[in-house]
Amino acid sequence: MRTEMWMVVAVAAALIATTVVLAGVLLVKVVRARRLLRDAGIPMENKMAFWGALIYLASPVDLLPDPVFLDDIGFLLLALRSLQTAADSAGLARRR
Q1: Looking at CB atoms within 10 Å, which of 19, 43, 54, 74 has the fewest?
Q2: Do residues 63 and 74 make contact, with C-beta atoms less than 8 angstroms apart?
Q3: What is the DSSP letter of 40?
């Protein structure tokens, strides 16, 4: 292969690796937020956002093909925001 083709492959691989790492980090944050809210009297809709994001992440049906995790990252961000809003309204302190 030519050098230009290897560069394109390297850039694509780096982008895929970056999105996979970002999705993993967000998944860990969502799970930690869920642990914080486990029995704090949080409304069911916020808990459903958590489970919906996990199901979408594991689902073979995606808006974008699987090597591109941008849609999965978006769902994880929405679930994390929903859980953080629920924690703030319940008066739970964030751990830093």
Answers
A1: 43
A2: no
A3: S
